Amino acid sequence: MPEMPEVQGLVDFLRERATGLTVTKVSVANIAALKTYDPPIDAMTGATVTGAQRHGKFVDLETDAGAHLIFHLAKAGWLRWYDQLPSTIIRPGKTPIALRVAFDDGSGFDLTEAGTKKSLAYYAARSPADVPGIARLGPDPLDAAFTRDTLAALLAGRRTQIKGVLRDQSIVAGIGNAYSDEILHAAKMSPYALAATLSDEDVDRLYAATRDTLTEAVTAASGKPPADLKDAKRRGMAVHGRRGQACPVCGDEVRSVFFADNSLEYCATCQTGGKVLADRRLSRLLK
User: Fold this and answer.
1) Membrane-spanning residues where (predicted)?
2) Quick check: 198 pLDDT over 90?
3) Where is 24: in which H helix or E strand?
4) How far apart are CA 151 and CA 210, in angstroms?
5) C-alpha to C-alpha distance for 253 and 36, rounded to whole angstroms
6) CB pairs under 8 A, 24+ apart, for 88-93?
7) How deeply is 88 buried, as exposed, middle or buried, from its count of CB atoms within 10 A (0-12, 13-18, 19+)?
8) Model's pTM, two decimal places?
9) Predicted local distance difference test score (pLDDT) of residue 280
């Protein structure tokens, strides 16, 4: 799933490559992914791109027509950029393409989604705040206003496992399954630790790990075209997606806990005092 660093990489690319271009055509291939009707998606046609912004994991293309094209790539979505857009006809239901946007210089992009479970979403909106997922976002952890005390206040009183807190977009925006694993590994913290029980020292470590991990990942994504962002993400991971490999810090084996549709990865030596976490469905630690 694209998370904050990859989404920021896409935003930076679109801001540089698409600003000043005029939309000549918007082709809807998956109508179920279109979540708005007012303004119509056709309102983008003839509009000139004036910039791009990120809201959590949402990409926001701004135009001079007072309309925003906003999209969320969900778990299996991606943006495919073309310097010369293909002339092939898109057949709804017969392609992974959900949306195609064409620009006046011949370039453009497709929003694509792999797999059978379709969660990608796109919107035409007058304001980002009109998109429900954006309206309920928590603070951005890389915003200058996001301080150590901001994080402490968000954690206070929450009897929720810290892994879930970091992934909850209404609490902290932009972090998903992969980077929550990386942050908790850097903070030397169990994913099962309850947010409300963290000490001041724990919060200090978690705050530093959050800012450092995300800053480094955003820097690594900067300047890369969309086609290279996924590989850059994989190469930068210390534990996520590296089950069975050696922890780069201590050399212990990276382990997984499996859920219904995904997994988390961690290092027992670095994060849980050597205890191996049981499958989350069992809700206990193996002794």
Assistant:
1) none
2) yes
3) strand 23-28
4) 10
5) 46
6) 90/27, 90/29, 91/29, 92/28, 92/29, 92/30, 92/31
7) exposed
8) 0.93
9) 52
d(CA 102, CA 144): 35
Q: Tell me if 100 sits within 8 A of 31, measured CB to CB.
A: no
* pLDDT tens digit sequence for 207-256: 999 999 999 999 999 889 998 998 878 888 999 999 999 999 999 999 99
Alpha-carbon span 45 to 47, nearest angstrom: 5
How many CA atoms within 13 Å lie on the side-chain side of 253? 7
Distance (Å, whole) CA 163 – CA 195: 9
Q: Name residue 51's amino acid.
A: G
CA distance 190 to 184: 7
Q: Which residue type sits at 224?
A: K
Domains detected in the chain:
4-135 (3.20.190.10), 148-282 (1.10.8.50)
Q: Which of 154-158, 177-181, 256-260, 274-278 has the lowest mean pLDDT?
A: 256-260
pLDDT at res. 117: 81
Question: Which strand ranges, in their side-by-side order, compose the sheet holding 108-113?
Answer: 23-28, 97-103, 108-113, 77-82
**Structure-token pair, residue 101:** 């946007």
